[in-house]
C-alpha cells in the first residue's frame, strides 16, 4: 500500500469515527450506538445464508416450473431474491431508526390496514396451489398475513401493556377475540400453519404479560380442544395430520409425498453435504425454494449447516429475552418478546416439517426461503425488533422489570 493510499484510508476511518463516534450526538450516530449490532449481524447472516440457499434451490424450482413453451432460467429465483433483499435491507434499517412511540403508531396503523386486507383475501384473493392467500395482480401480488404478523404482534403487545396501568382493563378477552378473528380468516384460505403461529405468539405474550397460570392453563386446554375440533371438522388439518401420523394408510397425498421427499433430501448429503450444485434429490422436491429450502441446505451443505442455522435462530431469541431482563418499559418487553417469539416459532415449525417431526404446513423459513412478501415483512419485523431493543448507552437501568 502506497503512502497516499494509507493516508486516504486513515482519512476515511477518521471521517467514519467523527460521524459515528460516541461524542457525536447526531441522530444517525446515536442510532448506531443504541442499536443492538450483534442482533443486526445475526439478521444479516441469515439473509446471506438465505441467498446462498436460494441459489442452490433455484435450478430445481426453475426446472420444475418450466415447460415446453416456457423455460425459466436456472438462476431466475436467485436474482429475484437478490432484488427483494436489496429492497428489504433499507426497509429494516429505516424501521429500526424509529423511536418507540413512532414505531408503535406505525405498527398500529399497519395492523389495521393489513387486518382489513386479510379479511378481504378469502373473497377477492388470488388462488395459488388451491389456497387464496394473495391479493393483487401479476407481480404486484402480496400476502397480507405475512405483513400482518409483526405489526399485529406489536399491537397485541401494546394492548396487553395497558394492563400494567390498569389491571381491570379487559385486554385479555379483546386480544383473544382479535387473534381468533385472524385465525378463523386464515383457516378459510386455508392456512393452518400461520394460524398456529399467531395463536402460539399470543399465548407467549400472555405469559410474558403476567396473566395468571390458571388462565393460561385454561387457554392451553382450549387450544388442545381446538386442534381436536380442527381435525374433526377442518379437512385440511385432518388430511395433513392423517398423512403424518399414518403414512402407510394415507394414500399418495401431496403432503405425504412432500414430507417423504423432504426427509430424503435433507439426509442425502450426510453431515458435510454434496457441495454447492451437487444436489440431486432437490430436483424431486416440491417448493424447494420456499417451504423445503431447509432440506436443500441439508443436501448440499450438510446437516452441520442445518444445525448452524438452527443455532442462529436460537441465538436471536435467547439474546432478545436476555436483553429484556432489565427492561423497564412493559410495552417494549412485550413487543420485543413477541417479535422474537415469532421468528423462533416460525423457524421451529419449518425445520420440524423438513425433518419429519411435524406435518406439512406451507411455512417458510424466515430470511432463508424465497419470497418478496415474506422478505419485506420479515425485514419490517426485524426492524421493529431492533427499534424496541435499542438502548441509550448513557442510561443507567434497574436490574428489575417494572410492569
Automatic annotation (TrEMBL):
Compartment(s): Membrane
InterPro entries: FtsW/RodA
Main location: membrane
Catalysis: reaction(s): [GlcNAc-(1->4)-Mur2Ac(oyl-L-Ala-gamma-D-Glu-L-Lys-D-Ala-D-Ala)](n)-di-trans,octa-cis-undecaprenyl diphosphate + beta-D-GlcNAc-(1->4)-Mur2Ac(oyl-L-Ala-gamma-D-Glu-L-Lys-D-Ala-D-Ala)-di-trans,octa-cis-undecaprenyl diphosphate = [GlcNAc-(1->4)-Mur2Ac(oyl-L-Ala-gamma-D-Glu-L-Lys-D-Ala-D-Ala)](n+1)-di-trans,octa-cis-undecaprenyl diphosphate + di-trans,octa-cis-undecaprenyl diphosphate + H(+)
Membrane topology annotation: Multi-pass membrane protein
Sequence intervals crossing the membrane: 38-57, 77-95, 107-126, 146-162, 169-186, 192-208, 215-234, 301-322, 334-353, 365-388
Keywords in alphabetical order: Cell shape, Glycosyltransferase, Membrane, Peptidoglycan synthesis, Transferase, Transmembrane, Transmembrane helix
Keyword Cytoplasm: no
Domain of life of the native organism: Bacteria
Presence of the UniProt keyword Secreted in the record: no
EC assignment: 2.4.99.28
Cited PANTHER family: CELL CYCLE PROTEIN, PEPTIDOGLYCAN GLYCOSYLTRANSFERASE FTSW-RELATED
Family, as annotated: Belongs to the SEDS family. FtsW subfamily.
Name under which the protein is recorded: Probable peptidoglycan glycosyltransferase FtsW
Amino acid at each position: 500500500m502506497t503512502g497516499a493510499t494509507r493516508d486516504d484510508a486513515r482519512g476515511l476511518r477518521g471521517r467514519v469515527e467523527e460521524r459515528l463516534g460516541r461524542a457525536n450526538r447526531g441522530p444517525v450516530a446515536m442510532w448506531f450506538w443504541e442499536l443492538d449490532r450483534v442482533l443486526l449481524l445475526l439478521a444479516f447472516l441469515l439473509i446471506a445464508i438465505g441467498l446462498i440457499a436460494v441459489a442452490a434451490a433455484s435450478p430445481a424450482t426453475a426446472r420444475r416450473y418450466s415447460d415446453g413453451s416456457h423455460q425459466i432460467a436456472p438462476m431466475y429465483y436467485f436474482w429475484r431474491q437478490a432484488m427483494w433483499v436489496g429492497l428489504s435491507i433499507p426497509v429494516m434499517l429505516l424501521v429500526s431508526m424509529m423511536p418507540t412511540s413512532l414505531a408503535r403508531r406505525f405498527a398500529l396503523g399497519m395492523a389495521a390496514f393489513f387486518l382489513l386486507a386479510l379479511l378481504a383475501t378469502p373473497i377477492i384473493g388470488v388462488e395459488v396451489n388451491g389456497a387464496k392467500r394473495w391479493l393483487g395482480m401479476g407481480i404486484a401480488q402480496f400476502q397480507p398475513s405475512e405483513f400482518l404478523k409483526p405489526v399485529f404482534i406489536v399491537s397485541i403487545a401494546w394492548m396487553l401493556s395497558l394492563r400494567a396501568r390498569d389491571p381491570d382493563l379487559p385486554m385479555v378477552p379483546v386480544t383473544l377475540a382479535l387473534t381468533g378473528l385472524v385465525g378463523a380468516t386464515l383457516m378459510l384460505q386455508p392456512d393452518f400453519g400461520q394460524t398456529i403461529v399467531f395463536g402460539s405468539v399470543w399465548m407467549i405474550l400472555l405469559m410474558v404479560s403476567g396473566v395468571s397460570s390458571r388462565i393460561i392453563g385454561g387457554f392451553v386446554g382450549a387450544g388442545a380442544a381446538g386442534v381436536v375440533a380442527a381435525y374433526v371438522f377442518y379437512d385440511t388439518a385432518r388430511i395433513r395430520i392423517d398423512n403424518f401420523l399414518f403414512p402407510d394408510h394415507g394414500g399418495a397425498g401431496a403432503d405425504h409425498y412432500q414430507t417423504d421427499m423432504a426427509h430424503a433430501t435433507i439426509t442425502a448429503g450426510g453431515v458435510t453435504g454434496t457441495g454447492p450444485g451437487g444436489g440431486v434429490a432437490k430436483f424431486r422436491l416440491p417448493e424447494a425454494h420456499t417451504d423445503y429450502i431447509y432440506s436443500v441446505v441439508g443436501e448440499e451443505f450438510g446437516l452441520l449447516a442445518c444445525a448452524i442455522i438452527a443455532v442462529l435462530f436460537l441465538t436471536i431469541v435467547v439474546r432478545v429475552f436476555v436483553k429484556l431482563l432489565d427492561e423497564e418499559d412493559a410495552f417494549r418487553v412485550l413487543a420485543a418478546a413477541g417479535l422474537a417469539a415469532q421468528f423462533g416459532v416460525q423457524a421451529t415449525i419449518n425445520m420440524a416439517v423438513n425433518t419429519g417431526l411435524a406435518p406439512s404446513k406451507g411455512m417458510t423459513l424466515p430470511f432463508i426461503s424465497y419470497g418478496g412478501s415474506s422478505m419485506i415483512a420479515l425485514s419490517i419485523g426485524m426492524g421493529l425488533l431492533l427499534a424496541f431493543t435499542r438502548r441509550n448507552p448513557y442510561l443507567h437501568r434497574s436490574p428489575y422489570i417494572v410492569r
